[in-house]
Structures are given as C-alpha cells and as structure tokens.
From TrEMBL, chain A:
Keywords: Chromosome partition, DNA replication, Nucleus. It is found in: Nucleus. This is DNA replication complex GINS protein SLD5. Belongs to the GINS4/SLD5 family. SUPFAM superfamilies: GINS helical bundle-like (SSF158573). The GINS complex plays an essential role in the initiation of DNA replication. Has a role in chromosome segregation. Its main location: nucleus. The keyword Nuclease does not apply.
TrEMBL record, chain B:
Its main location: nucleus. This is DNA replication complex GINS protein PSF1. Belongs to the GINS1/PSF1 family. Residues 164-212 form the DNA replication complex GINS protein PSF1 C-terminal domain. The keyword Magnesium does not apply. It comes from Trichocladium antarcticum.
Amino acid sequence: MDIDDILREVDPVFHAVPHEKRDLQELTRAWIAERSAPELLHWPANGLFERINNNIKQQIEKVEEMTGDMDPKTNFALIVIQTELERYKYLVRSYLRARMAKIDRHTLHYLSTDALRSRLSEMELAYATRHQALLHNHYLSSFLSSFPPNLQNLNDASAGISMIETPDLECAVFIRLLKDAFVEGRGVDSDGSLDMRESDIVILRWADAKPLVEAGSAELV
Amino acid sequence: MPMYGDQGNKLVQHAKRTQNLAHLPPYQTELVRGVTREVRDLDKDVASLLEPFQGSFDPSADQATACTLLVNHLSMRRNKRCLLAYHRTRTDKLEELAWAGSDVLDHAGQQPGGANNAALVDGGASSLSPQEEDYFRQFGDLLAACKGQWTDIDLTGSLEPPRDLFIDVRVLKDAGEIQTEYGAINLTKNSQFYVRQGDVERLVAQGYLQKLA
C-alpha cells in the first residue's frame, strides 16, 4: 500500500486510478511475478498487452510530433516522455524475454498438455512449436537419424526418468500479502502455518504460494 | 582399453567447457560420429544376443545375458543423453549469439576485426557443423519473425534497465554516419558523443561504440 492507495480509500472518485496507470501497475506486477516465479505464468488475457502496445504507439507518435518544435519547454517535455517510453518498453521487453527464456528451457513440458499450452500467448505458442521443431530437426540431422528407431524419441520416460524436464515448483519465492490471509507452507521437517496481515512478506515454496498469488491475495516480490 | 561411454564422456566434457567460453569451439565431428557408431554397434549386439531366444527371453533363467543386455541398454541411453547434452549446449550458445545480433555465418571477412565473428572462426574454417549453420540461420529467421510482432519494443534490445536517455559514447571503429532526431552524426574513430541511448544501442552491442560511465 502506498500513498495513492490511502488517498483512494479516502476519496475513491477523485483519486480513482486512471486506466494507463492501472495498466502500468499490472504490467509491473506481471513482470516482477514472471521474473521470480520458477514456472511460466498465465499470459494476461484481458487485453493488457493490446492496450500497452497502443499506448506505446501513441507516445511514439507524440514524440515524433513534438520533435519538430524548438521551444525549450516542449524539449523538456519531450525528454520526460522519451525517458518514460524507454522504461515502459524495457518493462515489456524484459517481461517477454523472461517468458521466452522459460519457454526455451522447458519447451516440451509447456507444449505437453492443453492446460499448459493455454498459458502461452499465440505468438509464444508459435515460437515454442517452431523452436522445438528446429531443435528436433537439428538433433535428427546431426546424429539422431542414424540411431536405432526405438531410441529416436525425445520424450521417453523409461527407467522412471522422463526425458522432459519440468520446472522446479518447490523452489522458494518471496511473496507480499495483499490481504490478510492464512498462509500454510510445507517445510523440510515440519509444516508451518501462520495468520498473516496485509503487506507482510514471507518466503515459502512456490507450490504453496501459487494458490495465494492466483487468488490475488499475495504478489511475488 | 577404451570403454563404453568414454567417448560420450569426452563430449560432455567438451560441452561443459563450452559453457564457460565466450566463443564456440570447433564442432567435434569425429567424436559425435564415434558415439553414434557405438550406439549402433551396441544395438546390433543386443539384437544378436536376443536372436537365439526368438522373442522368449526369460531374464531370470539366464542372468548373465540379462546383465549384458541391461548394460548395453543403459550405455546406449547414456550415449544418447551425452549427444543431446552436447548439441543442446551448443545450440544454446548459438541462440545467445543470435539474440545478441551477431552474424555468425558472415565469417568470410567482410567485416575485418568484428569481435563476434572472429570468435567463431578457428583457423579460417568455421567452427560450426553444417547442421549448426542451418540451425543458426533458421533460428535467426524465427527470431526476426518474433521481433516483427513487437516492432515498437525491440525484443533484442538491452535487458539492462534504462537509466538515462542520453549516454556518452566513444567510437572504437569507424561506423559511418547515423541519423538521429537531432540530425546526422558522423561516427569517426576516437571521437566522443553524447547521444540518445536508443539510437546507438545496436552499435554498442556490435562493438563499434563504447559506453562511458
């Protein structure tokens, strides 16, 4: 909670958060979450990225319009807008790249079931499929094609070890509570549970934190 | 006496070394071929061992043969994993280079002294296998397609958070004239400029310019 949240509570109409700001907040949150979570999270389905792309386009146009102006005042405004634009673009870029890196690491895993596939955006799905096909082709042409047929698979699960690696859902993450909640976590020797207040920060396993994050009662930090 | 898996082990050692190198060492064509041959030989052994049983092999009745089969089987799988690991490490490296925007295949010397290019050329010959060159080209196409969908963001841009809009750069190599919104700048060697970061990012990545702190 910051000063804006407090103001909003006092007077929800006057201090309502404008659209753009809410989008930025959402983007920032998605970015932080994606970077801290061990597995790929859901692609925001509410058209967030369409809106963000439009905003970026608008600002770029504005910058182009203002560039011709030699007035020092506009010049200053221009620098502010461009700085903001660069930061905005960085957020989007870093977010997309973080996702792509995760997809690259466990491509077959994310392509294996429909539930997992639905986490990817259309473009990511195309990227993952194509990338995997390229890799497979490369393996085939480099050595796999001269293997005996029963050894050519890339998704064997014999001897109890699946060839498809999956992300480690048990690794630790930090979360900040957004609402008062009862937090349960599994430990090595014993499990723990705690009544937590808003804005408290805890470290626990991602598998335990995930339901809280998905329900919106906590965010990753 | 060479043992099963020795060659596979060597491949993995190569892969491990590659992880810590800035450049890509030459492709081990011979080793890859050797390991693949070993797999084929093992498979043949398995087939000939099983032949007299006509598909009715009972492991508990003939434990010695069962053990041989198991060892052969595991060796094959191990070799496969070694090969996969070796190739994956190298493709990872290639992808990294593709993201960084260096043109690995362009090693004919059109760009004398290009740091990234020199790293991949070993004694005049490319250190990539023909398959890897194909892979690199195709991955580059894939990347370009992805970038095309996010034109405003520049997907391959810097992943360092932007701090300042303008930066000081020193020109390390002549890079010709570039267009900026404040007019054209002629980048001649050893000159120094205060420019918009977005305009020169590519040139910094390619080693033409150096960022000054």
